[in-house]
Amino acid sequence: MNGSEPLLRDISVTLNPDTPEWPGDTPFSCGWASLIGAGASVNVSSFTSSPHVGTHADAPLHVREGWSGSHELSLDAFFGPAIVVDVSNFEKEISIEDLEKIQSLPFVERLLLRTGKTIAAGAFPESWPTLSESCVRTLLGRGLKLLGVDAPSVDPRDSKNLPVHNMIFLGNGAILENLDLRRVTPT
């Protein structure tokens, strides 16, 4: 970051009824459980949603029974300087060599990938680029604690075995998905 950019930046997608959900998930909706105007003593809102609508952290339990849940995630991985890399020119799998043509990564704790395939643009994308398993393995060996993407997943849309999720979690890393990186300058 240069000196004119803020140290902290909100990179979350705002939730509203138009926020695209993963196909088949419960969409976000909100309303009122009680209203003072209707005679209640307080105004109380209510909402329903899949936890995967909008920006979210995946927990290991998301991909494997018996692994830790969201309440057990260490906040350490989610707070601190991050490297933002624009990979929007890629269509599918990205190797470590591809990534290093854009940004040298001898040591990286937090990596955010701007794929350009974000729900923040108002539609659920058909596909998005992802890191190869060997790329993820190399990054974990270089200190990776957090992989964040503006896409709906760190794995391909049609993946059933979720290799990147599993590899990150086996390496004690964390995952953020559906980020809004449109106004963040790559580092």
Describe, in plain words, how this protein is organized in 3D:
The protein has 3 helices and 9 strands; from the N terminus they run βββββαββαβαβ. It is α/β, with parallel strands linked by helices and about 190 residues long. The strands form 3 sheets. Strands 3-9-8-6-4 form a 5-stranded mixed β-sheet, covered by helices on one side. A two-stranded antiparallel ribbon has the order 1-2. Strands 5-7 form a two-stranded parallel sheet. Helix 3 (about 165-170) links the parallel strand 8 and strand 9. The chain starts with about 30 loop residues before the first strand and ends in a 10-residue tail after the last strand.
Fold topology:
Layout (H helix, E strand, L loop, with lengths): L28 E6 L9 E5 L7 E3 L24 E4 L6 E2 L1 H7 L7 E5 L15 E2 L1 H9 L4 E4 L13 H8 L3 E4 L10
Parallel strand pairs: 4-6, 5-7, 6-8, 8-9
Antiparallel strand pairs: 1-2, 3-9
Helix/strand/pairing class, anyone? Answer: alpha/beta
Shape: globular
Unreliable segments (pLDDT under 50, ≥5 consecutive)? none
Strand content: 15-25%
How would a crystallographer describe the biggest sheet? 5 strands, mixed
- What is the arithmetic mean of pLDDT? 93
What is the helix fraction of residues, given as a range? Answer: 10-25%
Number of helices: 3
Gyration radius from CA atoms, angstroms:
18 Å
The counted number of beta strands is 9
Strand order of the largest sheet: 3-9-8-6-4
N-end to C-end Cα span: 6 Å
Helix-strand string: EEEEEHEEHEHE
